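Thread: "does anyone have the structure for this chain?"

Original post by V.I.:
We have the sequence but no experimental structure in hand. Need at least a predicted one for the grant figures.
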Amino acid sequence: MNEIARILGVAKDSVSLWTGDIELTSRQKQKLSEHGRSVESVERRRLARLTNERARRRTYFEEWITKIERVSKNELFFLGTALYWGEGSKTNRGTVNFTISDPQSIQIMMRYFKEWCNVPDLKFRGHVILHPHLDAQKAERYWSRISGIPITRFHKTSTQHNKASQNKKDSLPLGTFSIGIYDTILYLRLMGWMQGMYNRLIEKNRQVPPRYDQFL
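Reply from O.Q.:
Generated one for you, tokens below.
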């Protein structure tokens, strides 16, 4: 570890953070043993270091949680609009569609749509997308609880085959979820808000013109 830090010119703590989750292979352990070092001792130190690193990461994480004392309604506006900018549909005219696998983002967007966009409960539609071998009913119950949208207002769950994920552990056992709102005016408001933010953040001589044909 000292040698890595010296070669890269970084702090030993950084190297420890990068390598904390690395498990030694049998060959690596044998090589260390051949150099006269105790594999068991090395492994004990590695596990102790990993435990310490995880504790330190948790401390950092929890410290920065406390930095956010409150989120104003105005800040919710910018957060929700930015989330839609990144994960929402921009080309499906007249339809607001936000799709993601992160349940926290779904909850934030539901609050954004209700509090900032004044969307009534009856206008929300839910849609679950998952691999065909997964439990659709379980996923529907989960996303209904997360979003607050009744399953009776869900579209039929879609199944999606992904060859790249075959024979691999399912990373999304509950699939992804889409919030749908059929509202042309809301769609145009969102497009306008995003363009307005862009116009204020990027110098005029560097701006990329909007493609109005996508949504008008």
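V.I.: this helps a lot. The helical segments are 2-8, 12-19, 26-34, 39-65, 73-87, 103-115, 136-147, 184-201.
O.Q.: and The CA atoms of residues 33 and 62 lie 39 Å apart.
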